[in-house]
Every structure is written in C-alpha cells, then in structure tokens.
Amino acid sequence: MLHRYDVIVVGAGGAGLMAALYASQGAKTAVISKLYPTRSHTGTAQGGIGAALGNLEEDHPEWHIFDTIKGSDYLADQDAVKVLCEEAVDTVYELEHMGLPFDRTPDGRIAQRPFGGHTNNVTKKPVRRACHAADRTGHMILQTVYQQCIKNHVTFFDEYQVMDLLVNDQGQTAGVVALHIDSGELHTFHAKSTVFATGGFGRIWKITSNAYALTGDGPAVAFRRGVPIQDMEFFQFHPTGIKGLGILITEGVRGEGGVLINGQGERFMPKYAPTVKDLASRDVVSRAIYLEIREGRGINGQDYVYLDVRPETVNRYSDEDGVKNLDGTPRHITAADIEKKLPDIADFCRTYLGVDPVKQPMPIQPTAHYAMGGIPTDVKAQVVIDSVNTPLPGFYAAGECACVSVHGANRLGTNSLVDILVFGRRAGQHAAAFAAATDWPALPSEPEARVRAELEGIRYSAGIESAADIRRDMRNLMMDNVGVYRTAELLTDAVARLRALKERFKRIAIMDKGQRWNTELLEAWELGCLLDLAEVTATVAGERQESRGAHFREDYPERDDTHWLKHSLAWIQPDGSIRLGYKPVTLGLYQPAKRTY
Amino acid sequence: MKVKIKIRRFNPEKDRKPYWAEYTVDAEPADRVLDVLVQIKGYQDGSLTFRRSCAHGICGSDALVINGRNRLACKVLVRDVGKDIVVEPLRGLPVIKDLTVDMEPFFRKYRSILPFLINDEPPPHIERLQTIEARARFDETTKCILCAACTTSCPSFWANDSYVGPAAIVQAHRFIFDDRDQGAQVRLALLAESDGVWRCRTIYNCVEACPREIDITRAIGEVKKAILTGDVD
Ligand SMILES: Cc1cc2nc3c(=O)[nH]c(=O)nc-3n(C[C@H](O)[C@H](O)[C@H](O)COP(=O)(O)OP(=O)(O)OC[C@H]3O[C@@H](n4cnc5c(N)ncnc54)[C@H](O)[C@@H]3O)c2cc1C
Ligand code: FES
User: Fold this and answer.
1) Angstrom distance (rounded) from CA B139 to CA B182
2) pLDDT of B129-159, one tens digit each?
3) How many domains does one find in chain B?
C-alpha cells in the first residue's frame, strides 16, 4: 500500500513526538512507530531533565555548556552544545506549559536536584540543575508530549515497523518502507522529508538498561543505505544497574545523597573524584566500580558493589562532607523522603531484588545504557554523510539514534532528555520547511523489493541456526570484550567473532512462517541490525588508540588530543566490509583541558 | 527449578478457536514471568506471540492474566506465582494472536476524555507557578502507564464494553484535579454520561490489578463527587 506525507517521522519517543508536533504545524505529517507511542523507552527515564533555570541556586546556561563539554571529554561539537544548553531552558518551560507535572519548590517553581557532572563552575560543587517529576520524569515527558499530539490531531501509524529508507537515483530520500505488524503487509510511505527518531541500541550488550525494542533499527537501516554512523566506540555504561538485571537505578539516588560502598564497607568514590565524589561523571564512576571489583573489593569478592541510600548512611556522609540545605541547615533525609522522591526506585528494588532500599543497600553493577554515537547530523538535525558535513537532502535524525554531537565521548545525566526535545523540535521544524520548499522526490521503482527479499530470506531460510543462540552469544561477547575496559586484543577478537556470528545469522531458521504478528520474524530481523551495529562498534573501538570518555583502552590509557581529537565515521562498503573516516570536532568555546572531578 | 506454564494460544491464520498449550521451563525463583515467556519463544516455540518492551514495569506493554489476576508479566516473579503458571490474554479486548489483544478500543476511550492540559491563557515567559500541595493533589494518577490491567479486570467493562473504564477515568482525574487545567467541567460532563463513571460499582478489581498501585477506586470516587458538587477543590 502506498501513502504520501510531506513529513514522515519514524519513532514515537520524546524525539519523534516532538518532531511530529512541530512538523505537523506546517506540513502533512505522520508518525510511524513499532510500539504504541506511550511504550517508548523515553518513558523509563527517571532522574530529570537538565536546564539552568536557577530555581534553587545560582546557575547559568554557560555553566551547563562547560559541564557538558567537559563531560564529553571534549569530543562534543561546541556549537551544538551551546544550542542544547541555551534552548534547554525554554524547552523545560514549554513542557510545563504543555502540562508536565514537575515537582515544585516551596515557592511554586519547578524543583531541581543535583546530578553527576553538573556543577557550579565557580565553587566546582554539584549544582541543582535536573528538573524532575519524582523519579518518573521520562514517563511524564512521554505522556505530556503525546497528549499534545492527540490535542493537535497528529496522525499515527502505531505498530508499524520501518525496515528501509528509500533513496532515489538522484540521491534524495523519498520516504520509508514499513511492515504493518498486525497484517504482515508492507507499506510504502512516500515522503519529502524523513525524520529518524528510533532511539538507542543497548540490546547489543548482555547487561543493559535498555528495552527489548531498542535494537538500533534506524541507524542500521540508514547505514545499509550508505549513510555513515558516527562515534560508535562511545557507548555509556551507567554505573548503577540492578545486579544481574541491568535495570537502571537513577543517578538521582546519588543526587539525593546515596553513596557507593565496596566489599570492605568503604565509600570509595572520594579516592577517584575528590571534589564531587559519588557525583562524578558516569564514565569515571563506572571505571571506579570495575577497578574496585577487579582488585577484589566487590561485595564478598564478587562482581558488584553497593549503592547505599539508607538515611543513616546518607546523613553520616552528608555531615562528613558538610552538605547543607539551601537554608544552611545540615542536609538530612528520612525514610519518608526516599519514598517520596524515589518511589519507583524503591519499588524496583523491592520487586526485583527483595531489597528495601530504606533498610538495606542495593547491589549494583554498571549497565550498558546510552549510545553517544549514531546517525551524524548538524544542528538543524539534518543528516550529514561525510567528513565535510554534506547533507543528504530530506533526511533528518534526532534523539538517541542521532549524533549531533552534543554528548561527545560521554553524556551527562539529564542531557538526553534535553537532546531529544531540543533536536526533535529542530528536526520537525526543518523537515517541514524542507518539504514546503521542494517537489516530490521520485519514488524508486519497486520500493518494497529489498525488504521483501530480506524478510523472505529469513522466513524461508533452510538454515538451522537459532536466533536466540546468536543473540545470546553476541551479547555475552560484547559484554566481555567491548565493555568498560578494552584492549587491542579483546577488540580484534570481538570483530572476528562478530563476523562469525554474522555468518551464522545468514543460516538462521524461524518456526513462525505466518504473516500476522510474526514477532519471531521481526526479532530475527532486529538481530541483524544489532549485529551490524556491534561490528561497527568493535571495529571503530579497535582503531581508536586512546582513552576518552566512555571509551577506555587499557593499552592506551591517556587521552591523545594530538591524534584523536576527532569524530569517527564508519560506512559499509558494497562487499559488506567497513570503511572508516574521521571528521574534526567543532571547538570554539573551550580548549581541551585535563578532566578531573 | 522446573516451572510448568500453561498458555492460552490462538493463531488467527490457523486456529478456529483458542486452545491451551503447556511448556516446562527451567527458571530461577527471581525470574520474571516475562523471562519465562521469552525463554519459550527463544528455545521452544518461536511462534509464541506477546508484547513487551521495557521489562521493568514502566512501558505498560505486557499486562496479562497471570494465574487469574491481571498483572504485568515483567513485574511478577516466578517466586510470587509458584511452579504452576497459567497465562491468558487480557479479557474484554479482542484477541489478535496468542497473548496480544487489540488495544485500539482501549486507547479510543483514553482519547475520548480529552487527555491533555486545557488552558488557553497565554503562558508566562517562565513556568506557571503551582504549590507543592496543588501538585500533590493529582500525583497518584500521573503514574498511570496505560497498560489496561485495570479496565480489563472490571466486571462492569466486561458487561458493557462501551463503559469508558477505570484507566480513562484515572487519566481524566489527572487533569481534573490539576489546578492549571481549565477543562474540568467539559470532562466532568463527559464522564457524567451514561457510559461514564456511574457504571463503576466499586468492585475494587481495578485497584487489585493496578501495577502502579494507584488507588483507582478513590480517584473514581473523587470524580463522582466532583460531578455531584461541581467542585474540584
Ligand atoms: C532507564 C533509563 C533511564 C534514563 N534516565 C534518563 C534521565 O533521567 N535523564 C536523561 O536525560 N536521560 C535518561 N535516559 C536516556 C533517555 O531516556 C533516552 O536516551 C531517550 O529517552 C531516548 O529518546 P528517543 O526519543 O530518542 O527514543 P525512544 O524513546 O527510545 O523511542 C524510540 C522510538 O522509536 C520507535 N522505533 C524504533 N525502531 C523502529 C522501527 N524500526 N520502526 C518504527 N519505529 C521504531 C519505537 O517504537 C519508539 O517509539 C534514560 C534511559 C534509560 C534507559
Ligand atoms: S515490558 Fe514494559 S511494562 Fe512490562
């Protein structure tokens, strides 16, 4: 079936919904999402959205800009960071005007809490910048922006999975091909502008905070159509995932005073980050946890440590550090405060661990969390396809699937929610403007042929390999070889073994041959996306001979600005091999400096 | 440990009627029922079909009837339900395939109560102010994840599927009691109609079913009272 829209938005998380809301004001727009919009992973974001409102203490967008650049280990493009942090303020006000139920301060303003890496640039102490609605900020953002889409009659194709990007002979994007999950039929969406907002791909790793649906379809589809992927070696491991499960425990817990404790009962972060301690940047904290574990100081010598937010612990360390409330009294918390400020976290611990965080410490370990890399774009959210930022006309990307780059080598907490909204909005505006100014791009002949062949290949394969086995092997391999600590040896081995997995993938077999709701087929196709992205990740990580942000090479433990202050780009070649390239980082505000916390 | 799990299955392309299928799975007591379903799909029967995404009780994808009760498969552990598990699709919505049901009727009801802030006054250049107390007034109902566990546990809904249902009322409550919203009277009028709140017979199934522990019957009671008094304070 053929549909025609000026603008097609793929994905209905925060980025896609914001893009759709804005695009639909000036152009005939539809959103395609494989999940019902409210099921998107934006809904799981907990801690907050960063904006220098200064509601509780002095703060400035300039400080937010500096913290973001420093947090990125100087790999972020500074023009983009400036846009992010300056537009963050109005974005948060806009959310409030849309009805978002932020928590409030005693004088009725939006409440803010401290978060890792966000500082007062003068005192270097943590600053309250994360605007929050309890520990379900993402849930409230997703609901609120979706509500506005309903109010504004945005068109949705729910439970349609996009499987190809159409690029015509003139080199223009012409829309997408999607599978209607319920009927199993393919639909062609002919569009002047296409916006990808498909989220992250943490499912590459065994322990992850990411949903089953986060399989990197958008970046993989674009990659297969010749678009490069940028900075894939930078994937954030969040320090505090629930042991074994990877479910996230927000940094907000440490923002409220929680501390990390090793097997000897010692609070270890002051050793690694003397000034901000437990609120150091995520890459720093995750490495510290791994080091403690490696040196035998995990709990009972095992591969996890404790996150302790019991009031007696918090209050003791608060006193030691001299942490004060805004009125100058010592900061003390009670069990009731935890229940009120972190209700979902308390619930997760009780449900999945049988641990009551008010009475017991929580066993945690780093969890694969956030893709700093993705589809390269400029500050208009326009996809750019080479080292000199040549745009691919009509193609936009925003949110976690994109790489602007505002997060560089390491994202600060609360900056993704800003990113998805600021650049989602820009994507919507520019996609609509582009559509208004251009004629219909020619639709390639037989637009559905490629997807049909891919799906038939899987459905009727005569192979014997099991997708579940390959998926498990990939996730274990990535965890062991392409995790927090990396070496040339581990990465070379990973690339070789990923290629072997891709060979096996060509011979997978599935049981469900049906058309309707064939999720076995879809999951197998998604595994193909994950494998492509895993191979790129391991390959570019092997090339980068330095340590920067989330990419830590034990064989090259220092940052090397002389050789490596540049973004990586990876393209797929016609024979399936990967070609690498680089592009310069946009500086202009701050010169790279040593990064300590 | 070995877990026996019975699943209500139906493939619209093959089966004339739903039937029961039984599987035996190795599971840990701390595994989620969702993990068990994923294991069956991965290693025993790839055609088993169900929705899931976040796997920790936030996205609302996997509300199912598990051992007779509406729950999220990702939020109930094997140790909570024991070695004999029975899983069925939600009741009251048309089954599509196995455990997936057609959610569209549910979302239509959600959209019918005008689930968005109504306030046509030009906003200030900063945030609108709201007191901590005013914000707390509707905190509970902001937690709803639209999983449909409540609505599909409600005998009034089973008896009459034109009833707007508890989830939609919860969503309406979230706006009616938000002092920034000016649409309360329109929503109250909608909910006062014959398919609105008065179909609620305070049976409390919804409260039992809600994975977010929202006191739904209380929220519905507050809406009923607001309709009667015309007052939302
Ligand atoms: C547990 C957790 C907590 C977090 N907490 C915070 C926080 O406190 N602050 C912060 O700033 N960030 C946080 N983050 C990060 C942040 O939430 C995400 O990076 C962000 O929400 C991503 O939004 P998105 O719109 O890009 O993608 P998503 O919300 O993931 O949405 C992706 C969309 O794409 C659709 N899609 C995907 N593939 C296809 C396809 N092939 N066809 C059609 N549709 C498709 C999906 O259906 C979905 O609608 C957190 C992340 C996690 C996992
Ligand atoms: S999978 Fe998200 S609620 Fe269960």
Assistant:
1) 18
2) 999 999 999 999 999 999 999 999 999 999 9
3) 2
Positions of A marked catalytic: 282
A 10 A CB-CB count for A112 gives 30
- Structure token digits, residue A156: 């949705």
Chosen domain end from B41, B66, B101 = B101
Residues B186 and B75 reside in one and the same domain:
no
> Residue A245: CA atoms inside 13 Å, Cβ hemisphere, count?
24
**CATH 3.50.50.60 describes domain A2-44+139-235+369-399+411-436:** yes
Distance between CA atoms of A402 and A411, rounded to whole angstroms?
13
B85 with B30, same domain?
yes
When pLDDT is cut at 50, 70 and 90, the band that residue A295 belongs to is very high
Nearest-neighbour CA in chain A from B160: distance (Å): 25
CB of B177 within 8 Å of any CB in chain A? no
Across the interface, do B132 and A106 touch by the CB < 8 Å criterion?
yes
Ligand 2 within 6 A of CB of B61: yes
| Residue B205 token pair | 């199934």
pLDDT at A326 over 90: no
pLDDT tens for each residue of B106-128? 999 999 999 999 999 999 999 99
Mean pLDDT of A337-365: 93
| B111 and B224 share one domain | yes
Q: CATH no. for residue B195?
A: 1.10.1060.10
Cα distance from B156 to chain A (closest Cα, Å)?
26
Among B31, B48, B51, which would you mutate to test the A interface (most chain A Cβ atoms within 10 Å of its Cβ)?
Answer: B51
Between B52, B59, B116, which is nearest A44 by CB?
B59
Q: Which of B101, B120, B141 is the last residue of a domain?
A: B101
Strand A259-261 relative to strand A552-553: parallel, antiparallel, unpaired? unpaired
Run of H or E residues at A7: strand A2-10
Domain limits, CATH 3.50.50.60, in chain A: 2-44+139-235+369-399+411-436
Q: Ligand 1 centre from A9 Cα, in Å? A: 14
Q: What is the ipTM of this complex?
A: 0.97
Q: Are residues B91 and B118 in the same domain?
A: no
Cβ pair A351:B75 closer than 8 A: yes
Q: Which pLDDT belongs to residue B233?
A: 76
pTM to 2 decimal places: 0.97
Helical segments of A258-390, H only: 269-272, 282-294, 311-321, 335-341, 343-348
Q: Are residues B74 and B88 in the same domain?
A: yes
Assess if CATH 3.90.700.10 describes domain A240-368.
yes
Query: Which parts of A4-157 fold into alpha helices (H)?
Result: 14-23, 61-71, 78-98, 137-151
Distance A78 CA to ligand 2 centre (A): 37
**Cβ separation of B100 and A36 shorter than 8 Å?**
no
Q: Decide: A461 and A527 in contact? Cβ < 8 Å.
A: no
**How far is residue B113's CA from residue B104's CA, in Å, rounded to a whole number?**
15
**Structural domain for B157, as ranges:** 104-229
Q: Which of A103, A132, A209, A212 to mutate to probe the B interface, most B CBs <10 Å?
A: A212
Q: Which ligand is nearest to the CA of A41?
A: 1
Nearest CB among A39, A102, A520 relative to B46 is that of A520
Contact check, Cβ <8 Å, A110/B127: yes
Of A105, A106, A212, the CB nearest to B53: A212
- Residue B179 half-sphere exposure toward CB, CA atoms < 13 A: 12
Pocket lining: A34 vs ligand 1, CB cutoff 6 Å: yes
Calculate how far, in angstroms, residue A201's C-alpha sits from the geometric centre of ligand 1.
9
